[in-house]
Amino acid sequence: MAYTAIVTGAVQGIGAQIALRLAKDGINVAINCRSAARIENGGNQIAQKCREYGVLAECFAADVSDYDQCSAMVDEVKKKFGRIDFLVNNAGITSDGLLVRMSEDSYDKVIAANQKSVFNMMKLVGSVMMRQKSGRIVNIASVIGIYGNAGQANYAASKAAVIAMTRSVSKELGSRGITVNAVAPGFIETPMTDALTDDQKKAILDRISLRRYGKAEEVAGVVSFLLSEDAAYITGQTIEISGGLSM
Ligand code: NAP
Predict the structure, then answer these.
(1) Catalytic residue among 3, 107, 155, 213
(2) Looking at the chain, which terminus has fewer C-beta neighbours within 10 angstroms, N or C?
(3) Residues with CB under 6 A from ligand 1
(4) pLDDT value, residue 219
(5) Which of 34, 94, 144, 223 to mutate to test the pocket of ligand 1 (most atoms within 8 A of CB)?
(6) What is the mean pLDDT of each run of 10 residues along the chain (247 residues)?
(7) Cα separation of 22 and 51, whole Å?
(8) Is 107 among the catalytic positions?
(9) 6, 7, 8, 12, best to mutate for ligand 1 pocket (most atoms within 8 Å of CB)
(10) Which pLDDT does position 1 carry in this prediction?
């Protein structure tokens, strides 16, 4: 029997590499895109690349910060694929600024996209997994949610909450055979980090033990492991993937 995974925000960056890695592992992939336009502009190409590994892959539009859109998407994925074995909550945004200058809107948007989305998807897919009495959830947090960072109070709060939710929900779902873990990437080369200035990038590089930035494929490899049989006895954990970044 082929397993099915939902990966949120899987059009580009880390999410796209996770979708491709899971397809390579032989897992059917439901690729979440923020909108129908994003399916046309990126999603369909990732789905096609996944199908080249011989699995089923399809795009599903939903803004994951919106509970009703998540609910409709989960129903549709269940209808198309029959079951949902794995959930990877990857979608996320930044909207940086020092606290005293940060707008309420910037705070609310980041919390909705990074934190509320994880609540929405874990609640909805968790119910499906509880009925199946099996499942794996991996949440993409960040080292910023552990150590904090000037200019990212909103992002740090959202990712710290994801780590705390991971621990709490792992305690709720463990007795049903469901594992819930998080990964906390450091600096990974993606469109999100492309937005930083050269000076910001250099300052971060100096603090990375391995003296290089991470690759999205390296995050995807750890997610693949956490969804594998080898990780069956790991739950409630957050694994840093940061090359030894010290904050
Ligand atoms: P990215 O290149 O900006 O990709 C993020 C994806 O999430 C985009 O495709 C985006 O869609 C999607 N997304 C955002 N909000 C969404 C929403 N409400 N509904 C549906 N999709 C949504 O970022 P990335 O670097 O790959 O980051 C992926 C995850 O890793 C994020 O959670 C991020 O916080 C985390 N992370 C990244 C790094 C890093 O160094 N890159 C480090 C630590 C943690 P659109 O393209 O349509 O906007």
Answers:
(1) 155
(2) N
(3) 8-9, 11-15, 32, 34, 38, 63-65, 90-93, 113, 117, 140, 142, 185, 187-188, 190-193
(4) 98
(5) 34
(6) 96 98 98 98 98 98 98 98 98 98 98 98 98 98 97 98 98 98 97 92 95 97 98 98 93
(7) 11
(8) no
(9) 12
(10) 81
Radius of gyration from C-alpha coordinates of the chain: 17
pLDDT of residue 183: 98
Full-model pTM: 0.98
